Amino acid sequence: MRKMRVRTEVLGDLPHLLEVSIEGDLSNASPTDPITWVRGDEGMIAFGEYKRIEISGSDRFEKARKWWQDSLRELDIHNNVHGSGTGPILFASFAFDSEEPSTLLIPEVVIGKRGERRWITWFGDGPQPEVKSIKSESAPLPLRWSGENGDAWRSHVAAIVDLIQRGEAEKVVLARALDGSIEGEQRIDTRRLLQLLGSDYPNTWLFSNQGLVGATPELLVRLSKSLVTSRVLAGTIKRSGDDEKDLALAASLARSSKDLEEHEYAVRSVADALVPLCSSTNVPESPFVLHLSNVMHLATDVTGVVTDSVNPPDVFDLLARLHPSAAVCGTPRERAERSIREVEEISRGRYAGPVGWVDIRSDGEFGIALRCGQIDESKKSIRIYAGCGIVAGSDPAAEYAESEAKLAAIQGALARH
C-alpha cells in the first residue's frame, strides 16, 4: 500500500497563531473552527482532518497509543525542521470518565511556532498550503443561561462535606454546568472566543478540539526529551480588582489551612503518580500564588526525569498514571470518583479530562480541560463547566462563589464575543 506523504518545512514571519488560516480545500477546515493549542504566541493551530476516531474504556490511553503508532506506519514523513511538536501531530481530548467517548484527531495541516522557529506540516502530494491572516469580528451573543440552581448545588457540597467529615474521603472535586443558548441567527465563532480568552488570560493554554473550547491554567503533563513537568493548581480565591487588596488576598490564600490542605492532596497525587515512572522527581516544599485576571490559585510545578530504559515511559503512560488527579477528582481516587457519580448529577464529557497533543516521538503536552465549554454542532449553544475542591473545612456558600468566579471566565468572553 502506498504511504501518505507528510512534509514539514520552515515558515517565515507569521501573524499571531490565532489569526492564522490557510488557502486551499481541506476536509472539515472551517476558518472559524480550528484545532488549537496556544499559549501566548507559541503553540500550534491545525486545519482539516486526515483521520479521526473515538475511543473509551479503562485502557483508552493504550488504545490511543496503538492507534497513533498504527497511523504513523501509514505515513511517509519528510521533516526538515525537527524538534518537539514538528511533523505529524495527534490532537487528543480525553473524557473525564473512561466510559465516555474521547476524541483523537490527526489534522491535514499544522502550523507551529516555538521561540524563533515557525513551521508548517501538511499531508498529501500537493504544494505547501498558502498561509494567510484572518480577522474575526466581534458580535455580542444574546445568550440565555440555564442550569442547576445555586441551592441545589450548595446542598450537593454540604453532602460531600458530611461524607468527608465522616472519614469516607479526604477531598472530592464537585463540578457544575450551565447551558447557554443563542436566540437569533448568530453562531459562536471558536476563533473569536479563543482570542478573547487569550486577551483575558494570557498565562493560560488556549485549546479547541471538536467543539471543546477553553483556557486552562493547569498543565497536567509535558514530556519533552525525557523531562516531565506538571503544574498543579488547587486552592482558589477571587480577585477584588484592587491591586493592594489582591496582594492581601494572595497572602491570605498562601496561609489558608483549608486551601493548603486541598493543594497538598493534589500535589501528592501527582508526585505519587510520577515516582514509578521517573528516575528522579522534584516537588517544591511550598506553592506559589498564580495570579489570573479573575482569580488566584495556589500552584506547584512538579518535575521529573523519566526512567532511562529500553522502553522508557511515553506521554500515554504518564496520562494513564496522572488522570484523574486529586485536582479534578479528589482523594482517595476511587472513593472520590464514586462520590462524584453519586452526587454530581451531570455528565462531565471532556471537561476536566486531558486535552493536548502528541508528536511522532510520543512526547507531548496536555492540559486539564478547565475554564471551558462544549459548543454543539449548530454553534448556537454551549455548555460551560466549573469545579471546586471540597474538603472538611469547605463552606457551601464560599464554594458556590468560587464556582461562579470560574464560570465567569468563559461567560465574560462570550458576552464580548
From TrEMBL:
<protein>
    <recommendedName>
        <fullName>isochorismate synthase</fullName>
        <ecNumber>5.4.4.2</ecNumber>
    </recommendedName>
</protein>
<comment type="similarity">
    <text>Belongs to the isochorismate synthase family.</text>
</comment>
<dbReference type="InterPro" id="IPR015890">
    <property type="entry name" value="Chorismate_C"/>
</dbReference>
<dbReference type="GO" id="GO:0008909">
    <property type="term" value="F:isochorismate synthase activity"/>
</dbReference>
<feature type="domain" description="Chorismate-utilising enzyme C-terminal">
    <location>
        <begin position="151"/>
        <end position="406"/>
    </location>
</feature>
<dbReference type="Pfam" id="PF00425">
    <property type="entry name" value="Chorismate_bind"/>
</dbReference>
<dbReference type="InterPro" id="IPR004561">
    <property type="entry name" value="IsoChor_synthase"/>
</dbReference>
<keyword id="KW-0413">Isomerase</keyword>
<dbReference type="InterPro" id="IPR005801">
    <property type="entry name" value="ADC_synthase"/>
</dbReference>
